[in-house]
Amino acid sequence: MYTYNTRLFICFAHFVFSLASELSSAVESHLNKRIGSEAGDQMRDKIIKMIHQNCRQGVYPRSSVNRFEVPEDKVPWFKEFPDYNPASYSAPTIQGQPWADPDISDPQFTPKWNDVDGNVSRKSHTGEYAINDKGFPLNPVGRTGIIGRGLLGRWGPNHAADPIVTRWKRNGTGAVEISRVTENPILQFIAVQRKDSGDWALPGGMVDPGEVITSTLRREFMEEAMNSLEKDEAQVEELKESLEEFFKKGDEVFKGYVDDPRNTDNAWIETVALNFHDENGSIVGKLELSAGDDAANVCWTDVNKELELYASHRDFIKRTAQMHNAHW
Fold first, then answer.
1. What pTM value is reported for the model?
2. Per-residue pLDDT tens for 67-110?
3. CA-CA-CA-CA torsion sign (204, 190, 12, 46)
4. Which H or E run includes 42?
5. Please, what's the b/e burial string for 235-273 (b: 16 or more CB within 10 A of its CB; e: otherwise)?
């Protein structure tokens, strides 16, 4: 039976931190009154360890810029940190790109924070985020040790979508394999190896302006796991049709802030992760996988607790296994 404890805890964390940026010490005071100061600090630190680790580690990806060290108790914006002096970094590769925002100092750039801005959503799944006195949006969880946009195209939330495509692992006779350890059936999911970091991950990507989530999920899956960018128009249309119904039946696994190493104080990734399960292995289970776009490799991977995946993807897979009462 799928337990929602972890999911509710993280949703609560997002709620607390989104309020914290606006209510400052009032939130901490309220928590302390309800559960005590020491317990409140312990809860906050546990939340930060769960959802805000990868984006505070060492050198920022694909750069030589070191993050300013931020202790767990100084991550929330309502915590005083007078010595905080992070470097500013926005990758040169994103400058002038049609899919990216201009520099925030550009007088013609007048974004509608916390709203739908033309065909770009600047809303956050975590709730309303704060804008500081310099006009920069603030990461809803807290400090990351670096300001600017980093490698991300948008100031504020950068919306992504992650398809979790699964099937049951079967033996030579076609029977579902059962784990000898947990006595639960073994689930498999499609994983891709990222070209940029070499990490194994879900075949997801960024939501295009005006694009609905289901379209993003199918498009990213086709590009990274089916190499659709190298197929001709007729092949792509045939593939779209074969997957259209399958990608209409996803179950939400996660929706919110992602602990991504590319996050900064002023730009961060949020995602919607949906599980698309091929119960009989008769749909995607029979398709020939081929890595493409940002993926170097692709394969069906057994679900188990030894998995090491990019960003928060391991947690998404764990939740998926729980949803299916599968081996973990």
1. 0.84
2. 999 999 999 999 999 999 999 999 999 999 999 999 999 999 99
3. negative
4. helix 37-51
5. eeeebeeebeebbeebeebbbbbbbbbbbbbbbbbbbbb
